Structure formats: structure tokens, C-alpha cells
Amino acid sequence: MPSPSRSAVRATALRPLPLPLPLLLLLLLLSPILSGAADSDSPAVRSDSGMVDLRQPDATRLARFATDNDFIYHAPPPAAPTLWDRIVNWIFFKIYRFFFSPVYKVYRNIFIYAIFMLLLGYMVYRLKDAPFLSAFYGKSAAGRLNLQEVTENIHAMDFEALIAEAVAAGQYRRAVRLNFLKSLRLLTERQHIHWKPEKTNRDYLEELTPSELRLPFQELATRYEYIWYGDFPVDASRYEDARLRFEQFHRQLRGQHDSR
Question: Do both 158 and 235 map to the same domain?
């Protein structure tokens, strides 16, 4: 006997079961009764016909609440930037672009190198008188001028005693320096120059009067700079030659002063 197909079995399973006719008539008769019982179980909605009492708040209190910061929930608008604010913002914008924009990379590198060189030069300048750098500058402790002799007023210095002390210690370069400072004091006392610690020998040469003193002073200044700043070795005989030239210049100054 052939077995039923799968589709036939599915159709049979989905087919509704037939109800007996007496049972169907009974359900139709009872449906109004069942629906009325369901409606009676639900609560009835009562309509409210009363008048609503609308209260108006006090105008003074409303005005007070309107100005109270605790009840202001929106942020105030930002203030308009002033001229100073715009200038500062422009400066910061330019600085930011200079340091972070790739357009200014070349100029930025030049700026960094320049700052580095300035710092390096400043460090060398500050350390040039340090003892551990004396070998690079060639100045011995015996030939270095006392710092007090540089910063002190030349009018308060006892040059005769200082020169004799330097010669006795064999510090001939220092003695040449003191003779030159003595010459500056004599020129200042006779109002040929106006001495100031920050002035250079070229400044003194340009303001020196009378003009016949310029050539001998220039020769002494060149000799002094060559000996002192050029680290030229000076022995007793060379110092004696320099001392005689200074003495000759000093006599010339005294002669100029006496002839007035």
C-alpha cells in the first residue's frame, strides 16, 4: 500500500476540526451575555465638570526670578574681542605658525641655530677668565690684571706703588698696562680726553686734543694692545723700552700743560 505524501500529511494537520452544529448554536446565543459581563467588570470613567481655579503668580516675584542667576540656564553670549585681544591673538597666531608650520621650517632652523650660537658665545664670554680656560687664552696668573684695577676709578689708584709692585714681581705685562692707565689719567686731568670705563682706545684717540698728541698716543696704545691683548712676551729689557716711551709721552703732556 503506498504511503501518503508529505504534503498530504501537512494539509491534513492544518485543516480545522469541524464543530458539531448544536455546540456552534450554543456559542452564538451566549456571546452577548459574555460580552456584557466583560463590560461590567471594567471601571467606569467619570467626567469632571468642575471649574478650574487658575492662579496668577505675583509680578514682583516673577521679575525677581527673571533676574536671579540661579534660574538663568542659558550661557551668556561671548563678549566681542577688543583691539588688544585681536593684537595678542595675532601675535600668538604668528608665533604658532612660525614654530609649527612647515612653511617656516628653513627660517625656524636658522632661528634655532642663531640662538644656539648666541648662547654658546655668551658662555665662552662668561668663562673666558676661568682658570681651566687660561691655557686657551695664554694668560698666566702672574700676567693677569687685578680685577680691581679694571673697575676702580683711575683717579683713586696709586700708580707709582702699583707699577713698582708689578716690576718687583716680574709682571712686566701688568706694569705696561698700569703705565697706560696712568697715561689716561694724565690726559683726563689735563682735559685732553673724558675718561669713562666703557670707552675704547679708539674713542680716546678721536676725541684727543691737541692734534699733535694723537700720533704718540696712538703708538703707545698700539704697543699696549699688542703686549696685553696679543699676549706678547715682555722681559725686563723690553719693559724698560716701553717705560721710557711712556715717560717721554708724560713729559710731553706736562710740557703742553705748562705752555698754556
Answer: yes
pTM: 0.44
- State which residues form the domain around 116: 84-127
Distances (CA, A) of 37 to 27, 28, 31, 45: 15, 15, 10, 17
CA 32 to each of CA 27, 29, 36, 40, 42: distance values in angstroms, whole numbers, following the listed order: 10, 7, 6, 12, 16
Of 259, 237, 238, 240, nearest in space to 248 by CA? 240
With H, G, I as helix, E, B as strand and everything else as coil, classify residue 98: helix
Using one digit for the tens of pLDDT, what is the confidence trace for 16-32?
Answer: 555 566 666 666 666 66
Q: Which residue has the cell 451566549?
A: 30
Residues contacting residue 185 through CB under 8 Å, at least 6 positions apart: 154, 155, 157, 159, 195
DSSP-based helix, strand, coil % in the chain, nearest 5: 70, 0, 30
Indicate whether 70 belongs to any domain. Answer: no
Mean pLDDT value of segment 195-214 = 88
Nearby residues of 40 by Cβ (< 8 Å), 6 or more positions away: none
pLDDT for res 45: 60
* 56 assigned to some structural domain: no
Instruction: Classify residue 136: in a domain, yes or no.
Output: no
